[in-house]
Design goal:
nine-stranded mixed beta sheet; 26% helix; binds ligand MV4; 18 helices; alpha+beta; 40 strands
């Protein structure tokens, strides 16, 4: 086994590899760009080497710098992770030439699988089924048209040099073939510099089923079951699971053997994935082979009880495969959800920002359990993450925050655990896809395993219309958070300080919250018996039973509920049982700072402390000039001049505590 390895990657895969290396007693060297200097993987590794500026081309893609760092650190091997240089045959060859073990397949295998048409020819020779079609060298339009007619419409024209869905065109019938072919050839020449195309039968409701293969340096090759990755959006996987719903042992063996044939055909070593496209009746066809460990490998680990990174290290160090095919058992069902910093409401645009709050369900990290416990006791919830609360997600790299993997005895239990885990996964501080994932795992088609690559598109109506209605509970929890923060800021015990309460009278206070459904004008009544929340005509007795961290437990009328309410600037994020509502606190200060035209006084709209006085009495000021700053509810609020005019008097000094309604400034409009 290696004494020391370098991980030529970042984020959760770098942390993942470091976790397993540490368990095996292998020292680790991390590499990082300037954007990742304080990243989690750097903190986890034994050593770390700076590569260069943030852009990947100046850091994680600099094979020469990485290789030099490995040699300088005395690392015997380099783990490339996925993405970046993981399928770069030149880098693999450079490692081999430098006597540093590339933890992956030989460069020749990467090359062989890199060209789609070459890969298909290899597969055909290895007896691996291909989609019925034509992928010959003769590109004569008349011949291609005849081939399309032989295959049967609808057909799919694909650029031979394309991939990942680029350069594909569905042709429904013969009349459109000639024009579609011409446009495909033009596009292929423009996008890939290679006009060659292939023609296949178009599978209308395909599933993406991939086989995990593993080969060692002694000629052994096994498959570790399959993964269903059909739930994709624009060729980006969203949910993956193992085993594939509806898979039979016979078909699993057939696909597994075909995948191992594919691996043997190219002299494969290490972890690899053979991707198939499958029809509803189960017929399957080779799509491509990925010569790296995949993002979704944890679902395979959870049902086979293996640590595939441990296998990678052992096999790269020359050891035989830890298990023979007969020893590989599949137990239970696992589902993975990719948590991304992206905004589903805005076309999944990548989001940047800071993980101000990142609450996670109870879980294990990276591998089933740190001591590699016997397989059949996988922890039900696992989170692989490359970030910690407080970390920034920067725009330079893939915006993945974490992977959430849930295991169950069967798919329904795995699904139930996934739903519960997502309900407890709270991210505040940047847009993310957790709410979308909750809708997706609750979607009847997904929950019913009615899977194919068009699921998200077909279910978009249910998946993308976020109901704007805000529940009464969410509003009540939003208010309770405001009151709890105020009381805490006033230093009093949250619920004995009736800061609004007056002897023998009840006192009412406005609170305005804005949601996608509109503006919610609420009133909080401080009465002798406690608080009453007025929502329009509806009066709701409100009592706070617990206020601990983000957790709030309330009694609302006759019901008691608990929720997590996280404050981010003027946003209140209410997480109640899997529903996430965002409320904006309409800044009462700005409302109140309109001042009272009659008395000419600017009053404190809520209790707080004066932290800055910005003008002197007598000053002539223009509308909007900041006059005084007070701190309330952990936030600073500026009291500004409501109009052009003169400051007559300043009634408080820095450091003074002010009650709600106290006159702060006497002001005369011009
Ligand atoms: C297909 C297909 C239907 N029929 N080939 C997409 C990119 C590459 N992985 C191959 N892809 C497809 N090839 C035939 N003959 C549908 C797709 C496809 C797809 C395949 C797997 C996973 C997701 C997909 C999303 C859209 C289209």
């Amino acid at each position: 086994m290696f004494r020391k390895i370098l991980i030529a990657n970042r984020g959760e895969i770098a942390c993942r590899v470091i976790a397993t290396a540490r368990r095996l007693g292998v020292a680790t060297v991390a590499v990082y760009s300037d954007a990742d200097a304080s990243a989690r993987h750097v903190a986890m590794a034994d050593e770390a080497v700076r590569l260069g500026p943030a852009p990947a081309r100046d850091s994680y893609l600099r094979g020469d710098v990485i290789l030099a760092a490995a040699r300088a650190a005395g690392a015997q091997a380099i783990h490339p992770g996925y993405g970046f240089l993981s399928e770069n045959e030149d880098f693999a060859a450079a490692c081999e030439a430098a006597g540093v073990v590339f933890i992956g397949p030989p460069a020749s295998a990467i090359r062989a699988m890199g060209s789609k048409s070459e890969a298909k020819a290899l597969m055909e020779a290895a007896g691996v089924p291909l989609v019925p079609g034509y992928h010959g060298a003769d590109q004569e339009p008349a011949l291609l048209a005849r081939e399309a007619a032989r295959i049967g419409y609808p057909v799919l024209i694909k650029a031979s040099a394309g991939g990942g869905g680029k350069g594909m065109r569905v042709v429904p019938s013969a009349v459109e073939f000639e024009s579609a072919l011409a446009s495909c050839q033009r596009e292929a020449a423009a996008s890939f510099g290679d006009a060659r195309v292939l023609v296949e039968r178009y599978l209308t409701r395909p599933r993406h089923i991939e086989i995990q293969v593993f080969a060692d340096r002694h000629g052994a090759c096994v498959y570790l079951g399959e993964r269903d990755c059909s739930v994709q959006r624009r060729h980006q996987k969203v949910l993956e699971e193992a085993p594939a719903p509806g898979m039979t042992p016979e078909r699993r063996a057939a696909m597994g053997e075909a995948a191992c044939s594919a691996a043997r055909a190219v002299g494969y070593v290490g972890a690899g994935t053979v991707e198939f496209i499958a029809e509803p009746d189960g017929r399957f066809y080779f799509m491509e082979m990925n010569t790296r460990l995949q993002v979704e490998h944890p679902v395979t680990e959870m049902i086979t009880g293996t640590d595939l990174v441990e296998w990678q290290l052992r096999v790269a160090a020359g050891e035989p495969l830890p298990l023979a095919q007969a020893d590989i058992e599949l137990k239970g069902h696992a589902i993975e959800a990719r948590i991304y910093a992206e905004n589903p409401e805005r076309g999944f645009l990548p989001a940047t920002g800071t993980l101000e709050h990142f609450a996670q369900p109870p879980h294990v990290a990276f591998v089933r359990n740190a001591d590699g416990e016997a397989f059949h006791a996988p922890a039900p919830v696992r989170i692989d993450s490359g970030v910690r609360p407080g970390d920034a997600i920067n725009p330079y790299y893939d915006p993945m925050i974490a992977k959430l993997i849930c295991w169950g005895e069967d798919r329904d239990q795995a699904l139930a655990r996934m739903r519960a885990a997502l309900a407890e996964l709270h991210i505040v501080g940047l847009a993310n896809n957790v709410d979308f994932l909750e809708r997706l795992v609750a979607n009847p088609a997904f929950a019913g395993a009615d899977l194919d690559t068009g699921l998200i598109e077909r279910e978009r109506e249910r998946l993308f219309t976020t109901e704007p209605a805000i529940s009464e509970e969410a509003l009540a929890f939003g208010c309770a958070r405001v009151l709890a923060d105020e009381a805490a800021a006033a230093g009093g015990d949250p619920w004995s300080a009736r800061n609004g309460w007056r002897l023998n009278t009840s006192y009412r206070r406005q609170l305005s919250l804005r949601s996608p459904a509109g503006l919610h004008e609420l009133e909080i009544e401080y009465g002798r018996e406690g608080l009453t929340l007025h929502l329009g005509k509806h009066a709701l007795p409100l009592a706070v039973l617990e206020a601990e961290g983000t957790r709030l437990a309330l009694r609302l009328g006759e019901r008691t509920r608990a929720a997590d309410v996280v404050r981010s600037r003027d946003e209140l994020h209410v997480f109640i049982g899997g529903r996430h509502s965002v409320l904006n606190l309409v800044d009462a200060i700005a409302q109140a700072a309109g001042g009272d035209a009659d008395t000419g006084q600017l009053a404190a709209p809520m209790p707080g402390k004066v932290v800055a006085v910005l003008v002197a009495a007598g000053a002539q000021v223009a509308k909007g000039t900041p006059l005084l700053v007070m701190e309330a509810m952990k936030m600073e609020h500026t009291i500004a001049a409501p109009a052009d005019g003169q400051v007559q008097a300043l009634l408080y000094a820095v450091g003074d505590q002010v009650a709600e309604g106290a006159a702060l400034v006497e002001f005369e409009r011009a």
